[in-house]
Design brief:
Elements (H helix, E strand, L loop, with lengths): L2 E3 L11 H10 L7 E5 L4 E9 L6 E9 L8 E5 L5 H14 L3 E6 L10 H14 L7 E2 L3 E2 H8 L5 E5 L8 E2 H4 L6 E5 L7 H9 L3 E4 L7 H22 L2
Parallel strand pairs: 1-2, 5-6, 5-11, 6-7, 6-8, 9-11, 9-12, 10-12
Antiparallel strand pairs: 2-3, 3-4
Length: 242
């Protein structure tokens, strides 16, 4: 199934120019063909193509369905972007496929990259949402200092973790510490790791220092492993309770 994205489809039954071009020029869809459209807020619309214009294809809504997220909690991951932005773009694509609610590019003391193109990241998230047949677009925040991340999002999370490499701080295994079904905030540091002051402030905000295993992981790998670990723990808990 091919999904198109139109965030305001209920009020304006015209596909955005990029989706119109894909629909008409690439897929060669014709008047009367069925079209599946998502709004990024959990709604999927079965539509009919009324006007196959390559820049502003118009549709008619036939049916609206609610598509719930396939996981039962709120997952927020805050990551210090790598110097090579391609690795962050790859990460966001994969996290969207696996499933997150919120992606926060986080500014830390040792960050090698201190700015991002948020619009570019949002486009990558949209493409991954469509490809993975989801209907909810993860929120992509602007670059946010770690202190603000802790202030805004730690109080809302029932489970809070900071993945830290330094063995001087006692760390626990994430898979054992995560409470299945709980809203979670995961902090992943830069290539130079968190500063000790940042770790202390995270612990003060209720974050548990965790390890993701014995292997030393790149920033983007660590974020992927952490999120997937939470999903696996959730799935195992659901299976055990059946």
């Amino acid at each position: 199934m091919i999904q198109f994205y139109a965030p305001d489809i209920e009020t304006n039954q015209v596909l955005p120019e990029s989706d119109s071009g894909h629909c008409v020029r690439v897929l060669r869809m014709k008047q009367g063909d069925p079209v599946e459209i998502i709004d990024g807020r959990g709604n999927r619309f079965t539509c009919r193509l009324v006007d196959p214009h390559p820049k502003r294809a118009r549709v008619e809504i036939v049916e609206r369905r609610r598509v719930e997220l396939p996981w039962n909690c709120d997952i927020t991951v805050a990551v210090a972007p790598t110097k090579n932005i391609d690795r962050m773009e790859w990460l966001l694509e994969k996290l969207t496929e696996i499933g997150i609610n919120r992606f926060i590019p986080m500014l830390c003391r040792h960050s090698e990259r201190r700015d991002i193109k948020r619009e570019r990241l949002e486009k990558i998230a949209v493409a991954a949402m469509k490809q993975s047949l989801k209907a909810v677009l993860p929120e992509v925040l602007p670059m946010t200092p770690i202190a603000e991340v802790l202030k805004r999002f730690a109080p809302e999370a029932e489970s809070r973790f900071i993945a830290y490499c330094d063995t001087e701080v006692e760390r626990r295994v994430l898979a054992r510490e995560y409470n299945p079904g709980s809203n979670v905030l995961i902090l992943i540091g830069p290539e130079g790791d968190f500063s000790r002051e940042e770790v202390d402030s995270a612990i003060a905000a209720g974050c548990v220092p965790v390890t993701l295993g014995d292997n030393r992981l790149r920033t983007e790998t660590a974020a992927l492993v952490a999120v997937d670990t939470c999903h696996i723990v959730n799935q195992l808990s659901i299976e055990a309770n059946k």
